[in-house]
Structures are given as structure tokens and as C-alpha cells.
Write a structure and sequence with these properties.
The protein is mostly beta strands and about 260 residues long. It contains 1 helix and 23 strands. The protein has a single domain (about 5-260), classed as Sandwich (Jelly Rolls), CATH 2.60.120.10.
Length: about 260
């Protein structure tokens, strides 16, 4: 199943699917909410942005070292059973409800909404994502960042961030150096989250050879000249910067990655 991306903000560009033709300077490759793969499992529902599990699209295998980007919802009391991974940096951003983590390394904890967790699954580990409350809904974004080195020892790092922390700013929650309050990732990626109030604006500058992946968790915003609403996503390439303006209260995730 191949789902194409629409080119927006283009200058003399042709709409194309990933992997076909060339990209000119300064584009947003937009995919609308209803174009992103939907997975339903009874006890969970999810949107899988890149190839994952039974969703396989050779033209949609990630964006730079960002290999997986899933928006997961678990029903009250649900448990994603223990399962193994290796050689990935698993990033979890808790959007709503209470997230409980368990693994075979002896880690076990509960995180409130706004929290971020990084689990290094280098040499291999089993872990489980669980609903931390028996009666509240739970939603989380799961990202896989490819590490710069294979075989790293399994490890967990967690940080709790408040709504105030991310309001009307791009809050850096993941970085390669773990500077400030950010969680450290063993790969080349920065993750930012934000809650923008109506009419507020933020701007992100990209380094040379870098781009971004933008996801509107909820709300309505303008990304440069492109209008994005709840569930919409955009790949950003060959832009020096990205200007975001909220048309309504908006929650978003932005991942900055190398593309060259």
C-alpha cells in the first residue's frame, strides 16, 4: 500500500509520491489525517506514519533516521504485551492519560501526560507499553530513532514536562547531547513539542542538510503558507526555517533530522 505525499509551498514543483522524481528547494510534503495508515486492534487504535508491522510501503520507510512515528490510543486497562526490539532508540511522548512502562531490565514506572521517555534497545530488550489507569483513555506518540552505534546497553531515561513548559514555545525534549532538560538520544535527532495558543507564532531554524517531520497532534495551524489540522503531517526539506502560526489552540510534535 503506497500513500503519496502532496507537495506544498512549492516553487515550480510537480506533485509526486516519495522516491519518484526530484525535490526542489523549500518544500513541505503534506499528508492529511485520512491518508495516514489506520490500524485497529480492538484494544488499541493507531495511525502508523511509516512502514510498520503489517503496513509495508517501500516508498514510505521513514525520514532520515526517524524510522517509526506512531500515534497510539489504548482503551482503559489495555496492555501492549512484552515484546522484543534491538538497535533502536524508542522515544515515547505521552499525549493524554497515564503511561506505564515495564521491561525485562527491571524498569517499571508511570508517566503523566506531557512526559517523554527514551528506551535504548541496543543489544536487545523486551518492553511493554501499558495503560496506567483503569478508566482513563491513553494516547502516546512512539518514535524510533536509528542509533549512531549498534549494540548499546539497554537503558531508560524519563523526564516529566508540564503544559506550561511547552506553551507558546518549541520545547526541546530530546537531543543527542541531552542538554538542558532534554532526554538524551543516541542518534542524530532533536524532538520538540509545543502547545500554541490562538495567534501565537514560533519559528524553527534548520541546519544545513537537515529537515523536519511535523505532526499536528490536535488543533489548527499554518506551517509557512500551508494549513494543517488535527492528524495532518508534513515532511520538511530544503527549508532554512519553518514558521508556525496557530489558528486555534494547537498541540504539535516537530522532529529535526539530517537528510543528506
Amino acid at each position: 500500500m503506497s500513500v503519496g505525499w502532496r507537495v506544498s509551498g512549492a516553487r515550480s514543483l510537480t506533485v509526486r509520491s516519495p522516491g519518484v522524481g526530484s525535490i526542489m528547494d523549500g518544500v513541505l510534503l503534506v499528508r492529511r489525517d485520512d491518508e495516514i495508515y489506520r490500524a485497529e486492534g480492538g484494544w488499541f487504535s493507531a495511525r502508523w506514519h511509516f512502514s510498520f508491522d503489517r503496513y509495508q510501503d517501500p516508498d514510505n520507510m521513514g525520514w532520515g533516521p526517524l524510522r517509526v512515528f506512531n500515534d497510539d490510543h489504548l482503551v482503559p486497562g489495555a496492555i501492549w504485551p512484552l515484546h522484543p526490539h534491538r538497535d533502536i532508540e524508542g522515544i515515547t511522548y505521552v499525549v493524554e492519560g497515564t503511561f506505564r512502562h515495564e521491561d525485562d531490565q527491571g524498569n517499571d514506572g508511570v508517566l503523566p501526560a506531557g512526559s517523554v521517555q527514551r528506551m535504548t534497545l541496543g543489544s536487545g530488550a523486551w518492553h511493554s507499553e501499558q495503560k496506567g489507569s483503569p478508566d482513563e483513555p491513553m494516547r502516546f506518540i512512539q518514535m524510533w530513532i536509528m542509533p549512531g552505534e549498534r549494540g548499546l546497553a539497554p537503558e531508560v531515561e524519563e523526564k516529566v514536562f508540564t503544559e506550561e513548559d511547552r506553551t507558546d514555545r518549541l520545547l526541546e525534549v530530546v537531543s543527542p547531547d541531552g542538554g538542558g532538560d532534554a532526554v538524551k538520544v543516541h542518534g542524530d535527532a532533536w524532538v520538540y513539542v509545543s502547545r500554541l495558543t490562538p495567534s501565537s507564532e514560533v519559528k524553527h531554524a534548520f541546519g544545513r542538510g537537515r529537515g523536519g517531520y511535523l505532526y499536528v497532534v490536535s488543533g489548527d495551524l499554518a506551517a509557512d503558507e500551508e494549513r494543517l489540522r488535527t492528524g495532518d503531517a508534513a515532511k520538511v526539506r530544503d527549508e532554512q526555517s519553518l514558521h508556525l502560526r496557530a489558528e486555534d489552540t494547537t498541540e504539535l510534535v516537530l522532529v529535526d533530522v539530517p537528510l543528506d
